[in-house]
Design a protein that fits this description.
alpha/beta, Rossmann fold, eight-stranded mixed beta sheet, two-stranded antiparallel sheet, 9 helices, 10 strands, 31% helix
Length: 271
């Protein structure tokens, strides 16, 4: 993720733009569009699976993902501890079924059918405690005020967790990336074991390039980097290509139908 101090462009009146620091991704920053669309693709995939459900979007950041989820969910709460992100989100994204709370992802508690926790577990010192907390939220285990949770009142909701694949995030030959906010970066089997230690059922998916991003991958293998550099096209090409990337240029594939060691990110569907 880009860490240069860019700022969001063209924000609505009264909405303070956020600066891109590298800690979280943002929409409305053309140079960051690859990362934003990479995250948006996963939110859209989850949104199709939480129709008419009560959803908590933990570590919601700027709020764009909570807004995507609220288009199909019965209700969404976006939770983030950062004061600037919280203020931006509550001012920018407004739906009757969407609200934002400033709180810690380790402690916010409310009944839910689904908890969404994307691209954040790698930032945690104690991921086990957080996953156990989320399991309790979708299982009705947080006390008498929670009542029945989950479809059909069965007390079985879903927790969606994603994290980058260290094998494709880190530079070749390195053990981890240089992201200063990451405490631990995961490989597929390690991430799946972590989730299975808290949930009875875990389905693991990988996020991959498709469409024009897949074509770009193949072009790079064929030597495109050398071609655009020799022709002096590098800036002109990527000034066009990066903002043109869409969420549809990413695809999720389940374990068994793809080599997850080559995935960009892992998405665990936990019950």
């Amino acid at each position: 993720m880009t860490s240069t101090l860019y700022e969001q462009r063209n924000q609505p009146d009264g909405v303070p733009p956020l600066a891109l620091t590298g800690e979280r991704t943002l929409p409305d920053v053309p140079e960051e569009n690859y990362w934003f669309r990479r995250h948006q693709a996963v939110y859209e995939w989850i949104a199709a699976r939480v129709v008419s459900e009560r959803v908590i979007d933990m570590a919601c950041g700027e709020g764009y993902g909570s807004d995507v989820l609220a288009a199909s969910a019965a209700s969404v709460v976006g939770v983030d501890a950062n004061p600037e992100a919280h203020e931006h989100a509550r001012l920018r994204y407004r739906r009757p079924n969407l609200r934002f709370e400033r709180d810690l992802v380790e402690s916010f508690a409310e009944p839910a059918d689904a908890v969404v926790f994307l691209q954040t577990i790698e930032h945690l010192q104690d991921p086990d405690a957080v996953l156990e907390h989320y399991r309790s939220l979708v299982s009705g285990l947080e006390g008498p005020n929670f009542g029945e949770v989950g479809r059909g009142g069965e007390g079985r909701g879903t927790v969606y967790v994603s994290t980058p694949n260290v094998r494709t995030l880190a530079p070749k030959g390195a053990e981890r990336s240089d992201n200063p906010w990451h405490v631990h970066e995961y490989r597929a089997d390690e991430f799946e074991r972590l989730c299975r230690s808290h949930f009875n059922s875990v389905a693991l998916f990988g996020l991959f390039h498709t469409r024009k991003l897949r074509a770009h991958e193949l072009a790079l293998r064929a030597g495109w980097d050398g071609v655009h550099a020799r022709l002096g096209l590098t800036k002109r090409f990527y000034d066009w290509f990066t903002p043109a990337i869409a969420a549809s240029d990413f695809v999720l594939r389940p374990r068994g139908q793809a080599d997850l060691s080559r995935a960009l990110d892992f998405i665990a569907v936990c019950r």
